[in-house]
Design brief:
alpha+beta, two-stranded antiparallel ribbon, about 15% strand
Length: about 180
């Protein structure tokens, strides 16, 4: 190795105040006082006892509405006749980077499609809510909703099957603006 390849770094010299870390302590105290001012004077309490208490409209933008880009729990959409829209093409499970979608196809009882999902499961704990499944679906059968408060006590409760995903559709389609 050449001497020109070696860079010698020298430790910076600290002043007396820097040695006592006084400026950094004052900056930290200023941040603390700012937060105390927000809580005491403005009444902005940041702590919520979730799920008993819920902060209104989370996640929100200035108007108090849900962010349009927010991605929550999945739903399986239905067509005009109330049937599941999915045609079991496996595009969503192929596109999923977390491999959390499991589909078992069966022959369709309807003449307008070849297959339909006999079994459709999504592991909500494994999902990273990236939206790749929604983008990959050619028939817009899977969609991420704005629901964020899903609760399960066991891992099995967080694996959503076709029935639960269709129930979420029924739940969320009523809340959407026409």
């Amino acid at each position: 190795m050449k001497d020109s390849d070696v860079i010698v770094l020298e430790e910076p010299k600290l002043s007396l105040t820097d040695q006592f870390y006084l400026p950094q302590v004052l900056v930290g105290l200023g941040t603390t006082m700012k937060h105390m001012f927000n809580v005491v004077v403005r009444g902005k309490d940041r702590v919520v006892q979730y799920p008993e208490e819920k902060r209104e409209g989370l996640p929100v933008e200035k108007g108090g509405l849900l962010l349009r880009t927010y991605r929550g729990v999945h739903r399986l959409n239905k067509d005009e006749e109330g049937r599941v829209k999915c045609v079991a093409c496996f595009m969503c499970s192929t596109a999923c980077p977390a491999s959390c979608i499991h589909i078992e196809a069966a022959e369709s009882p309807w003449p307008d499609r070849e297959k339909y999902p006999a079994k459709f499961d999504i592991d909500e704990l494994r999902c990273i809510y990236c939206g790749m499944c929604e983008e990959a679906c050619p028939v817009d059968a899977i969609e991420l909703t704005h629901l964020y408060d899903i609760i399960g006590l066991t891992r099995q409760e967080m694996i959503f099957d076709k029935t639960k995903l269709l129930e979420i559709f029924d739940q969320t389609v009523k809340e959407e603006p026409m």
